[in-house]
Each structure stands twice: as structure tokens, then as C-alpha cells.
Specification:
The complex is a heterotrimer of chains A (about 325), B (about 550) and C (about 230).
Chain A: E1 12-13, E2 17-18, H1 25-56, H2 73-102, E3 109-116, E4 119-123, E5 129-130, E6 133-136, E7 140-147, E8 152-156, E9 161-165, E10 171-176, E11 181-187, E12 199-205, H3 207-215, H4 225-235, H5 238-241, E13 262-264, E14 270-272, H6 275-283, H7 306-316
Parallel strand pairs in A: 3-7, 6-12
Antiparallel strand pairs in A: 1-2, 3-4, 4-5, 7-10, 8-9, 8-11, 11-12, 13-14
Chain B: H1 7-12, H2 28-32, H3 37-65, H4 76-112, H5 120-139, H6 156-160, H7 165-192, H8 205-237, H9 250-283, H10 291-304, H11 320-348, H12 357-380, H13 382-388, H14 392-422, H15 428-454, H16 469-499
Helix pairs in contact in B: 3-4, 3-5, 3-16, 4-7, 4-8, 4-9, 4-14, 5-7, 7-8, 8-9, 8-10, 9-10, 9-11, 9-12, 9-14, 10-11, 11-12, 12-14, 12-15, 14-15, 15-16
Chain C: H1 30-65, H2 67-74, H3 79-104, H4 108-139, H5 157-190, H6 200-225
Helix pairs in contact in C: 1-2, 1-5, 1-6, 2-5, 3-4, 3-6, 4-5, 5-6
Classes of the chains: A alpha+beta (about 325), B mainly alpha (about 550), C mainly alpha (about 230).
Chain lengths: ~325, ~550, ~230
């Protein structure tokens, strides 16, 4: 099982951290570096003497005597109080940065996020739904997130944000992307077999381009239906369970689907394979499970526009 | 002209033959029905080492799979089982029991000048509960395995997973009782069985550490028990308290789970710290620096450790205020650990440092635990944690403290007390070599993972973005080196049983009570109850005449 | 609190020879063993408090989230039966305490009697519980996903019953375990194993039983009464 196609890499910046692509990334990274240098300092403070003592005081005879000094009030207080002070400073840095990152600005562009095993779905204010996250540069974006099944987690490394996506609950996360780029969104709470496949593309566009994207229903260039259908197949989780080459995965293969004519269902009935059948199977799969297959497909009602379903049908017709 | 033999030299004379607790009674039945804490300790040693090998096998398996993205050996389901079983076996069957049940059981009574723990039969019951819990847990290997992660998060474990969740959680439930009863036994032992002259401040710091651990075992583990019971009933009777479809809350499960599991990490590290205090003092032939500070730090860590569980949940959906409070308290639990590290290092100052296997492992502990503790700061810092949570940075952090800390300390303790426990000396050069290989392999495997995490590699991932492949491969090679070092260490110890020189009662020139018994001790530990007139680290100093 | 200081066997007030009991080889006196045993029992009770504490925590959390459901649901509990059980348990704690006292004063007959009465009380408790439970099951007042009673106006009555069954079920399990312990002590008492010099196991079981009673004393008002 390899990654879904078209996932861009995470842009690296230096040895440790990814590139900064959001307005809070700089603050987070500043706190990271403070912690880093504090740690380097304390590490060497302990290890250098340890190695030095091990060498300089290496035992020369079994009966040699050692120092009687076994405490020092001054030193012990110093190495309690000073680190406490430093750690309180670190806490303060952390909590301020955290507070900044939790409260979305009032004019945030709200996107509804639905996570399910094993795909993401983003619903824009105008009803556009996409399996990838596309956002405008320079504008705060607020995500309102919920899960359909188990706990997932939203994580974009360059934005320095993360929030669990929980069933039965709405969690929120906001960020403001400050450079155009493409990167990966990775699910970061173990959610089952294809947890490490639950990735999707994140694109940051100039506001102008973003408007074009939204107007086209979630694509930069309006694609012909078959192409759009193929893209939906790959990006909206279908490919995880339905192959196109005849292999049996969780669900029936799409190879030769349209020419089959009819399908036998678990309730014994036979159904004609046509546009209605496809539409129903996508929006409410539990009502028509093919015989011999489990009832595990998530419902896509509310997550695909009519144009999307038309495109999928068009594409399915090309699967021989 | 011959000179008279010194007391020092007498203590160096190996015991030849003679009765000891190992050969006092023969036959498997005598071992299975023993109430001798030392025999029980040995049985725990064998059991936990088998668990360690099993957990290690799963680790090597999963690391092998991670050599490349996509399938190397396992499919995704198999991989998810591998990392889950690695975690569950290591945490519940190895790290939590090992030091208390092996070294604590063996040494605590002897260090106190006692003949046994307070409740010897309860001790045997603890062992049987361990075996029963282990059986249930490991039964999953022949049924449907486990793929929930060792944390059993809901709703995945209750509503989705089709693996042996109930068997394993029930097994862990039983293991919890083994842990509770051991802790209870030790608390009463320390209070009620100290020999005349052993005041609280004359206890070896190993005892303080075991005592603090026991407090946590007794107070925290019952909460795990009820959590797992609720999980089981959620699966079996749909009680729904964690199920959002029925009105329950999956985040509530996390609160319940971490309320135990955070103190549990202190159950894992406090005994390790306890060992290190003794190992460093003995192999520096020096009074420990800051005895009281170390003793009280152990108790402070045990208690403050109950207040910080929410730092595992900063991104869970809990309130911002809760996260802020937990972060604040988390920094406070770091302070006593820091104090200990400074005290241990200071103990080496103007000491007489032995370059032997226990000390090598002891210094490795200092190095690795310091890194582990410091990287905890990154995770406790709220905004940085938003980036690092659930990435390989966390995996690296907890391996540095749990393995680089607890396991390395356990090995230090094993090499330190092996002569006492078995009456044999091992090959010190091989022992030191094993330490060096383990140290290199460990850092190769896990330091790499800090980079993976900070660069954005999530944990519990079967496959991954191509850019992470070189680091993953390097980490896997490190795991092979680490495995090699550990095998070498094990072989060194086992070989001593066959061909090691007989150990004197006090090969290290130490001052605590266990070194005044023979190696191995007689069943009653002491022929007469000892009267203690000096502290456990009362080495000859430059001020003595 | 009298300690188990050793009197010689001939001086036992009842005139009988006091039975010998085992003092572990690692103890320097019977007293030390007794005090240690007592400490062990108390530590165990602390673990039980934490164990039940988790359940009480769940109760308070869900009560705060679904207050109306809890109010509506709890009225379906039969507080009369709960009250009877409360009286029975409190009484059984009294008889248990008397059993301990009897053992302490070498009164073997009274020890056995009191233990029997306590056992009977425990059994009554379980019988009442049986009736309560079967009533609930009959009415579909079951936990969580198994709930199928009708006529409720609030959203989450099933959560109340989840908490109710977990709490009373775990408590009931402890009652059963207590009965087993009491039976064990009863057999030993009947054999004449306890006396002024040695009654630690009776006291230990007694302490356990008082805890079981105490948990119920909190459970009853919270589940049955508070509206």
C-alpha cells in the first residue's frame, strides 16, 4: 500500500524544522529554538563534567579515598531555583504562543472538515466540497472539524498546527497561510488499517486564484467530467476500497463495472446498474450492499455535489 | 613474612560451594511454591526477559518494515499489530514489572536487613497473577492479535477493531493486580521490616526509589483497572460511556487512561533512578551527593506525577485552560528529575570511578536520560507540542526515557547485582563492549527519530512520504546494532553462569547491607539480624585518618 | 484497640488453651506481623477507594452533562428497595464489628454467630438486588446501547443506566467476594483458630466489609435519592 498519488512533500528548512508557511510558525519556531538551546546548555552542563570526572578520577587503587562533600545548600538551591525560573519562562512562551494559536480571528474564512476512515472532506461556505484542502494566502482560515467514526487528527507541518478530529464533537483549528505552496496534510491519530494513507494535498493560492478555484467548484481549471470523476475517485477515498484492475479490496472492483448490467445484493434482490444505482450507492451505500461484501462504506451524502456524482458516473462508464 | 589479612580482603574471598537460596531446595515444585523473595525475583527475571525478547522481536519487525515506504515484509494490518504488540508487551510485561519485581524483590529485604518481604505468600500470588495476565495478553498472538495501539483509544478499540481487545485488556487488568500487590508488599516491608539501626535516612536510595514507585503502583493502578473494565463493558454490553453515538465521550476515555498511564511512566523510571543512585555511588566509592534531595525528589516525582496526565492530550479537544494548567504542572515534575541528575553527576566529582560494566551502563543512563528528560520540555511547551504531538519526536522522547532510562538502568542494576544474585562474576570486558554497542545502536535508532518527528513524520505510520526514507533506514540499521548489543549483554550474563568466576560477597567494595551477605545469599539472607551503625554510602573519605 | 500481645496459653480467660498461630520467620514478634498485616489491609482498601473513585467520577461527569436525563431516569429506581438494602448493609457492618469484637474476646460461639448473621445480610442484599435488576431488565431499563424502554422524554436516560449498572454491579461483585471471605473466616473461626492473641484475619475481613458498606452508603443517595 503506497501513498495516495499527488501528495507533495513537506518543504524542509534546515536540519530540524519544515519551512514556515503560516503566521504563527515563526513564534512556534522561536519557542522551539529557545527550548533547543536551553537543552543543549543543560546537556553539556551534565555530560561534560560526567566525562571529565570519569577520566580524571578514574580509579587507581581499590582503597583510595574520596571526597567527603555530600551536600551544599547553596549549590543545591541554585540548581533548583535557576532551572525553575528558566522553565517558568519556557512555560510562558509556550502558553502565549498557544493562546495565539487557539483563538481564530473574527474575519476567518470557515471551512467545515469531515474526517472518516480514511479520507478527508472539506466543505466550503458556498457548498463546494473537495477532498483536498485549498486555501487563500493571507487570510485567516478556521476549520470546524468532526469525525464520522474514530478519532483522527489534522496536521500540517509547515503551518505548525494540529488538532484531533473527534466523533460526536466539533473541534476547531485556525491558521493563516502566508506563502503560496503545496504540502501534505497527514492524519496524526492512529485510526486503523490505512491511517498512514489518510493524506491529502494542501494548496495555498493567491486570493485571485483561490476565487477562481472556488468558482469552478474546487478546481483551477474546469475539468471534463471523466477527468474530474477520475480525480474524485483518487482523492475522495474510493480508491482505498475499490480497485480498477480487478483486484478485490474491501469493495467490488470497478473494472468492467458499467458493462456488467446488473448486480446481486445481500438482500437477495438484483439491481440494474445505471445512474440511479450509482448515485444511491454513493450517497447511502448501506441500502444496497453487493452480495459477498461487508457493509463498511461511509456515506457520502452531503460531501459530494451533484456535478461530482455526474462526473463519477461519467468516469465509471469508461472503466472496462 | 606473611601479613594478616584485612577485613576488606576477607570480603573479597569467593564463597566456595555451600548452601544458598538457589540450591537450598531442589525441584521445580520447590520453585513454584516458594515464598523466598529471591527465588520469586529470579522467576520474574526469566519471565520479564522472555517478554523483553518478545517485545524486541516486534520492534525489529516493525523497524524492518519501515526500511522503505510501502510493503517490505508486512501489510498495513500486520504492521499495526506489530507496533501495538511491541508497545503492549514492553510496557505491561517488561518495563513496568521488571525493576520492582526482579531487583526490588531480590534486594529490598536484604538492604533492610530483613529475611523476606512483609507478605511472602502475597508475593508469590503477585508472580502467579503476572503469569496469568501474561497468558491472557499473549493469547492474542494465537487468536486475532491486537491493532489498537497500546493505548486502546476509543472508539477504534471498542467499535472498529476486530482483534482480541477483550483478552488483552483483561490480561492487563490482571497484571495490574500483580503490580498493586507488589507495591503494597513493598510499602509495608519498608515501614515494618527495617533492621535495628536502619533509619529512613540510612536507607540506600534504591529503597527510597522502590518505595516511591510502590506508592504510585498502589494509587494509580486501580484507576487503570476500572478504565479497562469500562472498556471491556463498552465492548461487551454497549454501556456507551465512551461512545458518542450513545451519549458518551471518547475524550473521557483518554482522561481515565492517562490518569493511570502518566503515573505509570514514573513506575517505570523511579526504580531505574533508584538503581542509578546506588550504582553511581558504589562505583565512585563515594558518598552520594545530596542524599536527602534525591530521596525527597523520588517522592515528589511520585506525587506531582499524578497531576500532569493532560499533557498527553493537548490536541485532544480538552479546554485551553486545562491544557495550560497541565503544561504548567508538567514543568514542575521536571525539576526533581533535574535535581537528581545534577546530584548524580556531582557524586562522580572527586570520586574513585571504576571503569566497569555497571558504571558504563550507569553513565549511559545519565547521558540518555538527560536527553530524554530535556526533550520532554519540548513536548510540555504548549505551542511546540502542537507541532510535535503524535510525531516521531514523541516516540524518540519516550524511548530515550523508557529505554535509555529505565531499561539501561535495569541493565546497570543487573550487571551490578548479578554477582550477588547468582554468585558469579561475568566477563567485564564483554559487558563493557555490550554497553558500548547498545549505546551506539540506541542513539542511531532513536536520535534519528527526533529529526523525523520535528520534520513532520507522524507516528504509527505503516508507510510514509518518500523524503523520510533515508532517516527511517538509518534508524532501522541502528535497531540492528542495538539488538546485537543487547544480545551480547545477555550472552555475557548467561555465560557467567557456566564459566564465571565465583563471586565474593562484596566484589565492588560497597557499603550497603546486601554486600555483607554471601554471594548468593542463604535463604534467610542473614544468619543473624544485622545491627547497622553506618549509612549505605559510608566510604573512606580524604578527611578520615 | 487491644494488641495481640502474647499471653501464655494457660492464661486465656475462657479457660481453653489458646490455639497456636503461625508467625512468619521474618517477623521478630507476633505484634509486628499483626501491625504489618493491618497496614497491608488499609493499603488495599485505599486501592479499592481509587477503583470505585473512577466510577464515581464517571457518575459526576455524566450527571453534569445529562442532568435532566439523570433526574428522569433515577425516578425509575425503586428507592424503597435501595433503602432496605442500605439498612441491611449497615446492620451487617454492625454484626461484622461484633464478630471482630467476639474474636478479640475469645468468644468463639458469638464470633461464628455474628459471621453467620453478616453472611445472611449479605445474601439478603443480593436477593434484593436480584429483584431490582430483573425488574429493570424486564422494563428495558438497560445500559447504553441495550436500553429499550419507552416513555422517556429526555435524551440520554440510557447513560444513567450505564452508570447505575456499572456502579451497582461492581459493588455487587465486591459483596460476593466479601461473602467468600466471610465464609473462609467462618470456617476458621469454627475451627477455633481465633483468639485474643490472634484475630487479625477477622479484623481484616471486617475492614473490607466496612468499606463495601461505605461505598453503598455513597452510592445509594447519589443514584437513588438525589433528584
Amino acid at each position: 500500500m503506497s501513498n495516495p498519488p499527488n501528495i507533495p512533500p513537506i518543504t524542509e528548512d534546515g536540519f530540524w524544522l519544515p519551512a514556515q508557511a503560516s503566521t504563527i510558525a515563526a513564534e512556534t519556531d522561536h519557542t522551539w529554538w529557545v527550548t533547543y538551546w536551553m537543552s543543549i546548555f543543560f546537556f553539556f552542563l551534565v555530560i561534560v563534567p560526567m566525562i571529565y570526572f570519569a577520566i580524571v578520577h578514574k580509579r587507581k587503587s581499590e582503597t583510595e579515598k574520596t571526597s567527603p562533600i555530600d551536600h551544599s545548600m547553596k549549590i543545591e538551591i541554585a540548581w533548583t531555583v535557576l532551572p525553575t525560573g528558566l522553565l517558568l519562562w519556557l512555560f510562558a512562551l509556550g502558553v502565549t504562543g498557544y493562546a495565539n494559536s487557539q483563538v481564530a480571528p473574527d474575519n476567518s474564512y470557515e471551512i467545515k472538515v469531515t474526517a472518516q476512515m480514511f479520507s478527508w472532506s472539506f466543505q466550503y461556505p458556498d457548498g463546494t466540497v473537495s477532498g483536498e484542502l485549498t486555501v487563500p494566502k493571507g487570510r485567516p482560515v478556521k476549520l470546524v472539524m468532526s469525525s464520522q467514526d474514530v478519532i483522527h487528527s489534522f496536521f500540517v507541518a509547515e503551518f505548525r498546527v494540529k488538532q484531533d478530529v473527534v466523533p460526536g464533537l466539533y473541534t476547531t483549528l485556525w491558521f493563516e497561510a502566508n506563502k503560496t505552496m503545496e504540502t501534505a496534510l497527514q492524519c496524526t491519530e492512529y485510526c486503523g488499517e490505512k491511517h498512514s494513507n489518510m493524506l491529502t494535498k494542501v494548496t495555498v493560492l493567491e486570493p485571485k486564484d483561490f476565487q477562481t478555484w472556488i468558482d469552478n467548484g474546487g478546481t483551477m481549471e474546469k475539468m471534463p467530467p471523466v477527468e474530474w470523476g477520475a480525480k474524485l475517485y483518487a482523492s475522495r477515498g474510493c480508491a482505498n476500497c475499490h480497485s480498477v484492475d480487478g483486484t478485490r479490496v474491501q469493495g467490488p472492483t470497478f473494472k468492467g463495472f458499467w458493462t456488467k448490467g446488473s448486480e446481486k445484493l445481500t438482500d437477495g434482490s438484483t439491481v440494474k446498474i445505471d445512474e440511479n444505482y450509482v448515485r444511491q450507492s454513493i450517497l447511502e451505500p448501506a441500502t444496497q450492499i453487493v452480495e459477498g461484501y461487508p457493509n463498511v462504506m461511509s456515506a457520502y451524502a452531503g460531501q459530494l455535489r451533484d456535478e461530482d456524482i455526474d462526473a463519477l458516473i461519467a468516469w465509471l462508464k469508461t472503466q472496462n | 613474612m606473611s601479613r594478616s589479612i584485612t577485613a576488606e580482603e576477607v570480603s573479597q574471598i569467593p564463597q566456595s560451594g555451600g548452601t544458598n537460596y538457589i540450591n537450598a531446595e531442589q525441584g521445580v515444585w520447590s520453585w513454584l511454591t516458594t515464598v523466598d523473595h529471591k527465588r520469586i525475583a529470579l522467576m520474574y527475571l526469566v519471565s520479564t526477559l522472555i517478554a523483553f525478547l518478545m517485545g524486541g522481536f516486534f520492534a525489529l519487525l516493525l523497524r524492518f518494515e519501515l526500511l522503505h515506504p510501502g510493503k517490505d515484509l508486512l501489510d498495513a494490518k500486520g504492521y499495526n499489530q506489530a507496533f501495538t504488540l511491541h508497545g503492549a508487551v514492553m510496557v505491561f510485561l517488561f518495563v513496568i514489572p521488571s525493576t520492582p519485581a526482579v531487583l526490588g524483590n531480590f534486594l529490598l529485604p536484604i538492604m533492610l536487613g530483613a529475611k523476606d518481604v512483609a507478605f511472602p505468600k502475597l508475593n508469590l500470588l503477585s508472580l502467579y497473577l503476572y503469569w496469568t495476565g501474561a497468558l491472557f495478553t499473549l493469547s492474542s498472538l494465537v487468536t486475532s492479535g491486537l491493532d489498537t495501539g497500546w493505548t486502546f483509544y476509543v472508539p477504534f478499540s471498542t467499535a472498529v477493531s476486530d482483534t482480541s481487545v477483550i483478552a488483552v485488556t483483561f490480561g492487563v487488568f490482571i497484571l495490574g493486580f500483580s503490580s498493586i500487590l507488589t507495591g503494597l508488599n513493598f510499602i509495608v516491608t519498608v515501614h515494618k521490616l527495617r533492621a535495628p539501626g536502619i533509619t529512613w535516612y540510612r536507607l540506600p536510595l534504591f529503597c527510597w526509589g522502590i518505595y516511591a514507585t510502590s506508592l504510585v503502583q498502589v494509587l494509580a493502578t486501580p484507576v487503570l483497572a476500572i478504565t479497562l473494565l469500562l472498556l471491556i463493558f463498552e465492548k461487551v454490553a454497549q454501556i456507551g460511556i465512551f461512545n458518542p453515538k450513545l451519549g458518551g465521550d471518547p475524550v473521557l476515555y483518554q482522561h481515565f487512561f492517562w490518569f493511570y498511564s502518566h503515573p505509570a511512566v514514573y513506575i517505570m523510571i523511579l526504580p531505574g533512578m533508584a538503581i542509578i543512585s546506588d550504582v553511581i555511588a558504589v562505583h565512585s566509592h563515594r558518598r552520594i551527593f545530596g542524599y536527602k534531595a534525591i530521596a525527597f525528589s523520588s517522592v515528589a516525582i511520585a506525587l506531582i506525577g499524578f497531576l500532569v496526565w493532560g499533557h498527553h492530550m493537548f490536541t485532544s479537544g480538552q479546554s485551553e485552560l486545562a491544557s495550560a494548567i497541565f503544561s504548567f504542572l508538567t514543568f514542575f515534575v521536571a525539576i526533581p528529575s533535574g535535581i537528581k541528575v545534577f546530584n548524580w553527576t556531582s557524586t562522580m566529582w572527586r570520586g574513585s570511578i571504576a571503569w566497569n560494566t555497571p558504571m558504563f551502563y550507569g553513565m549511559s543512563f545519565l547521558f540518555l536520560f538527560t536527553i530524554g528528560g530535556l526533550t520532554g520540555l519540548f513536548l510540555g511547551t504548549l505551542n511546540v507540542d502542537l507541532h510535535l504531538h503524535d510525531t516521531y519526536f514523541v516516540v524518540a522522547h519516550f524511548h530515550y526515557v523508557m529505554m535509555g532510562g529505565s531499561v539501561i538502568a535495569f541493565l546497570a542494576g543487573l550487571f551490578h547485582w548479578w554477582p550477588k544474585m547468582t554468585g558469579r562474576m561475568y566477563n567485564d570486558s564483554l559487558g563493557k563492549l555490550s554497553c558500548v554497542i547498545v549505546f551506539i545502536g540506541f542513539n542511531m535508532t532513536f536520535f534519528t527519530q527526533f529529526f523525523l518527528g520535528s520534520r513532520g513524520m507522524p507516528r504509527r505510520y505503516y508507510t510514509y512520504l518518500d523524503q523520510f526514507q533515508p532517516l527511517h533506514a538509518f534508524s532501522t540499521y541502528g535497531s540492528w546494532v542495538l539488538g546485537l548489543g543487547l544480545i551480547l549483554g545477555l550472552v555475557t550474563l548467561l555465560a557467567s553462569l557456566k564459566s564465571g568466576a565465583r563471586a565474593p560477597s562484596n566484589p565492588w567494595g560497597a557499603k550497603s547491607l546486601e554486600w555483607e551477605t554471601q554471594s548468593p545469599p542463604i535463604t534467610e539472607n542473614f544468619k543473624r539480624t544485622p545491627l547497622v551503625t553506618h549509612g549505605p554510602y559510608d566510604y573512606d573519605t580524604t578527611e578520615d585518618k | 484497640m487491644s494488641s495481640a500481645t502474647a499471653l501464655s496459653a494457660e492464661q486465656a480467660p475462657s479457660g481453653e488453651r489458646s490455639p497456636d498461630f503461625h508467625v512468619g520467620h521474618h517477623w521478630d514478634s507476633a505484634d509486628s506481623q499483626f501491625e504489618a498485616g493491618r497496614m497491608g489491609v488499609w493499603l488495599f482498601l485505599v486501592t479499592e477507594i481509587l477503583f470505585f473513585g473512577g466510577l464515581f467520577c464517571a457518575f459526576f461527569v455524566f450527571r453534569s452533562w445529562y442532568f435532566d436525563s439523570f433526574v428522569e431516569a433515577h425516578s425509575h429506581l425503586d428507592w424503597h428497595m435501595g433503602a432496605v438494602n442500605t439498612v441491611v448493609l449497615i446492620f451487617s457492618s454492625l454484626t461484622m464489628a461484633l464478630a471482630v469484637r467476639s474474636a478479640q474476646t475469645n468468644n468463639k460461639a458469638r464470633t461464628v454467630q455474628m459471621l453467620v448473621v453478616t453472611l445472611v445480610c449479605a445474601a439478603i442484599f443480593l436477593v434484593v438486588k436480584y429483584f431490582e435488576y430483573s425488574h429493570k431488565i424486564h422494563d428495558g431499563l438497560l445500559p447504553g446501547g441495550l436500553f429499550h424502554a419507552t416513555g422517556f422524554v429526555t435524551d440520554h436516560p440510557q447513560m444513567f443506566f450505564s452508570v447505575y449498572f456499572m456502579m451497582t454491579g461492581v459493588h455487587g461483585l465486591h459483596v460476593v467476594i466479601g461473602m467468600g471471605l466471610m465464609l473462609w473466616i467462618l470456617i476458621r473461626a469454627n475451627r477455633g483458630e481465633f483468639s485474643q492473641r490472634y484475630y487479625a484475619p477477622v479484623e481484616g475481613v471486617g475492614l473490607y466489609w466496612h468499606l463495601v458498606d461505605l461505598v453503598w452508603i455513597y452510592l445509594f443517595p447519589l443514584l437513588y435519592l438525589v433528584g
